[in-house]
């Protein structure tokens, strides 16, 4: 493998910086952004930036319980410049690539009644009394992932079996990319939505039911059925979406990067849907594959997002190590053979790990690994990280 001088990626959750950062670490001013970019390049060996779109870029609704203020709106208003226009310029001036960072399964949720919020949202720092939900999710509740009774939905997670959902996201991403000179798109599969009570709770939307009935002759609403076939069908719709997205990005020569947990399934908080990354690699659907992501913890401050709602019944569970191989074993036995001689690059998400130069170099030396991913917030804001608290 060719050794790159700046092989790593810096992941920028700009909303976290703006609301909870300090000094240049807020990234509130263009000069501060340029200064921090230089530090990312020299101190993190970053050659790529993933710049996350903030909530207000996507049409949606902010809500808050009576007597509470929405932390996102409290400091965001101080920004008076266009990041989509400026950030790619700053990155390119430094010889860095910049990909727009979007979250596929994170459309938000409605504000629930106070009596539910007080017992269900154990982590008071994680939107206990304030919410955001996209207009698309609010106006099309039938597209939200549903359980077998068709009465309970996993808010924030849209079902990709609907062509309308896939078309909406592709159109949204095309519009966002057109707002700046980005080099590509990073689609993150993390979700902040409330975890399923059990891993196979959701995935019973009508198009999944109809297709399963057509293929297997079983009605998943009323009959026993093969769980593995059903999980694979759910995973297939994610693959279909990524394939359609890649086709739409080709004309502009955008890179497509996808971030996933490590292993064979989507895992907590989403379910046992198959994660068909070998197909993405074999068919050249993705250019960059980022693995070892974690939906349960905030990558900026490491707070557990839903400590009361872990769920159970996962085929693999990266939270407790259930049926998981070691990272080194997976790299050698699974990822290296699949990637060898193929185009996609493999990156390891390290936002949830303590920094260790020795460990990081060992990982970079592995023949399957092209680079590591670090959190800009943790690098730029030692004060909040040391205090382990959000200060607004």
Notable characteristics:
392 residues; alpha/beta; TIM Barrel; 8-stranded parallel β-barrel; two-stranded antiparallel ribbon; globular
Query: Radius of gyration over alpha carbons?
Result: 20 Å
Uncertain residue segments: none
Shape: globular
Please give the order of strands in the largest beta sheet: 1-2-4-8-9-12-13-14
Secondary-structure-derived class: alpha/beta
Overall pLDDT: 93
What is the CATH T-level topology?
TIM Barrel
> Do you know the CATH architecture?
Alpha-Beta Barrel
What count of helical segments does DSSP give?
14
Number of domains: 1
Cα distance spanning the termini: 45 Å
CATH superfamily caption: Glycosidases
What is the C-level CATH assignment?
A: Alpha Beta
Number-wise, the strands total 14
What string gives the helices and strands in order?
A: EHHEEHHEHEHEEHEHHEEEHEHEHEHH
| Percentage of β-strand residues | 15-25%
Percent helix, as a range, is 25-40%
User: What can be said about the biggest beta sheet?
Assistant: 8 strands, parallel, barrel
Give a quick rundown of the structure:
This protein is an alpha/beta fold and 392 residues long. Helices cover 35% and strands 18% of the residues. The chain starts with 7 loop residues before the first strand and ends in a 5-residue tail after the last helix.
Secondary structure layout:
Layout: E1 8-12, H1 14-20, H2 30-43, E2 46-52, E3 60-64, H3 71-76, H4 83-93, E4 97-103, H5 114-120, E5 130-134, H6 135-139, E6 144-146, E7 153-158, H7 163-177, E8 184-188, H8 206-216, H9 227-250, E9 255-259, E10 265-267, E11 271-274, H10 277-282, E12 288-291, H11 327-339, E13 345-349, H12 357-364, E14 371-375, H13 376-380, H14 382-387
Parallel strand pairs: 1-2, 1-14, 2-4, 4-8, 8-9, 9-12, 12-13, 13-14
Antiparallel strand pairs: 3-5, 6-7, 10-11
Helix pairs in contact: 2-4
